[in-house]
């Protein structure tokens, strides 16, 4: 096993772990340098855009869900108090 430099580029820092992922990736992806077609590139941009849109709005959706849950719980408590007061 030969010694190679670490990814940081520091000449003093060495590692003895072989980079197996790079070798496997080179074998499995024969057309690794090819560009996507125009339709494929548009689909990729659309997918990344949708994922970004969802990640930005995840917190807003969670806040709205919590707000709705609190309103529902408050309405239920008030309703039960009214029913209890009318029954007495």
| Spans of at least 5 consecutive residues with low confidence | none
Number of helices: 2
Structural classification: mainly alpha
Percent of residues in beta strands? under 5%
Helix proportion: 55-70%
> What does the largest sheet look like?
2 strands, antiparallel
Give the tally of β-strands.
2
Q: What is the typical, i.e. mean, pLDDT?
A: 76
**Shape verdict:** elongated
Order of helices and strands: EEHH
Strand order of the largest sheet: 1-2
The N- to C-terminal Cα distance equals 86 Å
Return Rg in Å. Answer: 29 Å
Keywords: Membrane, Transmembrane, Transmembrane helix
Transmembrane segments: 65-87
What can you tell me about this protein's structure?
The structure is a single chain. By secondary structure, this protein is mainly α. The chain has a domain at 57-88. Helices cover 67% and strands 5% of the residues. The chain contains two helices and two strands, in the order E-E-H-H. It has helices at residues 20-28, 38-87; strands spanning 4-5, 14-15. It has a two-stranded antiparallel sheet. Strand 1 and strand 2 form a beta hairpin. Keywords: Membrane, Transmembrane, Transmembrane helix. The chain crosses the membrane at residues 65-87.
Which key terms come to mind for this protein?
88 residues, 5% strand, two-stranded antiparallel ribbon, mainly alpha, 2 helices
Q: Can I get a quick summary?
A:
The protein is mainly alpha-helical. Helices cover 67% and strands 5% of the residues.
């Amino acid at each position: 096993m030969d010694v190679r430099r670490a990814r940081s580029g520091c000449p003093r820092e060495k590692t003895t772990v072989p980079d197996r992922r790079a070798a496997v990736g080179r074998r499995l992806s024969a057309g690794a340098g090819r560009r996507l077609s125009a339709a494929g590139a548009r689909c990729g941009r659309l997918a990344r855009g949708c994922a970004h849109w969802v990640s930005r709005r995840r917190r807003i959706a969670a806040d709205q869900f919590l707000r709705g849950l609190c309103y529902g719980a408050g309405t239920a408590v008030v309703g039960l108090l009214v029913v209890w007061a009318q029954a007495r």
